# Entry
Amino acid sequence: MVGAGLRAARLIRREALDVPAILTLITDPRRYDLQTESIGFLINQPEADRLFERVTAVLPGLRRIGLVYQADTSSLLARDLLDVAERRGLHVEFRLCRSRKDLLPALNELRGQVDVLVVLNDDLTSTPGAQEIITKWALKNHVPLAAPSPEWVERGALFSYSASYARLGEEMSGVAGLILDGAMQSSDFGMLRSREFELAVNQATARLLGVEIPRGLQVDETY
# Structure
């Protein structure tokens, strides 16, 4: 069985506990009591170190990172990012939000304090209203926005670095085939991260911000 998103994951966890399952498009399975011996996860976001490697490749001179996220569901991911940032000598300004109304005040506190705004994909930031608030703020204040998916880049974010839905589908199919053939079980891979991530860049936003994408950096999608 395969499922995408938190609602499907919770349904499978509750109603089909003994059926091998592969789940994806879940922010952080550690937060939702979803992990069992019969369930495996395909994560579509890069691990923290790989994400910051790409962020610093796009913006080589950055030192200060702003991070907004849903306080109740993304705290572990935020901690992962903080650990990696500190190892890289980067300073992180956290702003915790619980609802959409918290976003604009939190963002305004970051004005003039950060070189880039990093947004996690979670229950809050994945809503269209939140995407609009964050993207408009970043453009208005000339802050480069590192977003969790190309959909954000289409709306004006400077760039995103994530696995495409097409790539996730291919990898889900491959893992499902291995399970059906008896070559592996869902529990064999636990939390498997996508092998390929794509860099999407909004060229108009780059021009607006005066950001020159370094030559030699592979850009997979442009808007």
